[in-house]
Each structure stands twice: as structure tokens, then as C-alpha cells.
Specification:
The protein is mainly α. The protein contains eight helices and no strands. Helix 1 packs antiparallel against helix 3, helix 2 packs across helix 7 and helix 7 runs antiparallel to helix 8.
């Protein structure tokens, strides 16, 4: 469930000027997006490498051990438990903590978007209107939430492109391990563990395969991405 996330602040601290606050937001976007991209590629890559070790090195069929490893990794991409478990939620939380105005975040949403900014040098996120439409946006970045969606979608697309080139048999192997994953039984204390991981795998595989679903990488125009995350309503 979504909740309002207030800007970060330290009691008694003197708030920084808007320019400093805005620069902190920009820096956080850079580092958080980089972390998300790296962790996404690592999660999928760890699964695929465990498959490669079994198939390529040992010439053996996939087993429950490999499937369990992939469940653990793809759960990072889709997690229906409380907020902040999935990589996309962690990305959103990091960015919101430094970009949502309030507390020590003394900049405004206008300073981020551009029009009506109070600082001399805004971030001009609204200039990404057309570019973000390629990643599923509506052609108008007029809120922090829409910029966040664009950031997440673009980094997700980059991660999937990386995976598809690093592992030429990615689609074949993901389909094979998925079949084994469906035979696993989730723990009673975490009944959605397997289904969450399969959902994360399916989303990645479908995007890599593309609309023609021919079993070959064909990443085209992003078909939309909305983060299940706390955005503070901005």
C-alpha cells in the first residue's frame, strides 16, 4: 500500500539552500539509478550463470538447486511483500528521500521539472517529454512520479539489453528454469515467493523476446512501467 513519504530532514539542522538541495537530488538520481541497473543485471546474471554452470560446464539437466537460486534472484525484481523489498521500490525510496520537497529538501518540484523554477539552473526534467514517451510515458513529464517512472523504465530496459547480449541463450535458459521453478513449493511463511519470482522472470523474458515472441532478443519500444512505490503524491 502506498503511503506519503516526506522529504528527509534532521531535527535542528539548518536547511541547505535550494540549489544545494537540488544538486543532492540530482546526485542521488545518478547513484540510485546506477545501483538499480547494476543489481538488476547481477540478479538475472547470477541465475543465468548458475544455469550455464549446470548446462554448459556439467552438461546436466537443471535441478531444484539451480531453480531455487533463480527464485532468490528474480524475487529481487518482483516482490509482493511489504514495500521496499524489490529493486524498483528501493530505487524509488532512495530518489524520493532526496527529491521530494520538504524538510531539508528545500527545492521545489518546479526546480526539478523546469517551468516556474525558483533556482537559476533547474534540472529541466520536463525536457525529457518525448524521450520518456519511448519508455512508456505519456509524452509529458509533469511530476516527480513520472520522472521516476522514466528513470526506472530506462534503467530496466538497459539491464535487459545487457542480459540478452551477455547470455545469447538467455530466453532458452529462462524458459527451462521456469519449468523447474513451478515445481518448487514455497515456504508456509512466504507463500508468494515462487510466484513473485516467476512474475519477475516472465516480465524480463517477455521484454527481451519482444512483441514477435520468436525466442530471439528483440527489445523494442518500452511498453510501459509503473513502479509500485512510495512517491508522496508528487
Amino acid at each position: 500500500a502506498a503511503a506519503v513519504l516526506l522529504g528527509s530532514g534532521v531535527a535542528g539542522a539548518v536547511p541547505p539552500p535550494p540549489e544545494t538541495s537540488l544538486n543532492t537530488c540530482q546526485s542521488t538520481v545518478r547513484t540510485a539509478a546506477k545501483t538499480y541497473l547494476t543489481n538488476y543485471v547481477n540478479a538475472a546474471g547470477t541465475c543465468l550463470q548458475s544455469i550455464a554452470s549446470k548446462v554448459v560446464k556439467d552438461n546436466d539437466p537443471l535441478n531444484a538447486t539451480v531453480a531455487s537460486s533463480c527464485v532468490l534472484q528474480f524475487r529481487y525484481l518482483e516482490d509482493s511483500r511489504a514495500a521496499y523489498y524489490s529493486l524498483s521500490e528501493k530505487l524509488a525510496n532512495s530518489i524520493n528521500a532526496k527529491c521530494v520537497p520538504g524538510g531539508n529538501n528545500t527545492h521545489t518540484v518546479a526546480d526539478i521539472l523546469g517551468p516556474g523554477a525558483g533556482v537559476t539552473e533547474p534540472l529541466q526534467a520536463q525536457d525529457l517529454n518525448g524521450w520518456c514517451a519511448w519508455f512508456g510515458g505519456d509524452g509529458s513529464v509533469d511530476s516527480l512520479a513520472e520522472w521516476l517512472d522514466c528513470i526506472t523504465a530506462s534503467q530496466t530496459c538497459a539491464a535487459r539489453a545487457a542480459i540478452s547480449t551477455q547470455y545469447p541463450r538467455a530466453l532458452e535458459w529462462l524458459a527451462a528454469v521456469r519449468a523447474v521453478m513451478t515445481t518448487l513449493t514455497p515456504p508456509a511463511t512466504d507463500p508468494n515467493k515462487i510466484s513473485d519470482a516467476i512474475a519477475g522472470l516472465d516480465a524480463a523474458a517477455a521484454a527481451i523476446d519482444g512483441p514477435d515472441a520468436d525466442g530471439q532478443p528483440n527489445i523494442q519500444k518500452y511498453n510501459g512501467f509503473k513502479v509500485r512505490a512510495v512517491r508522496g503524491g508528487l
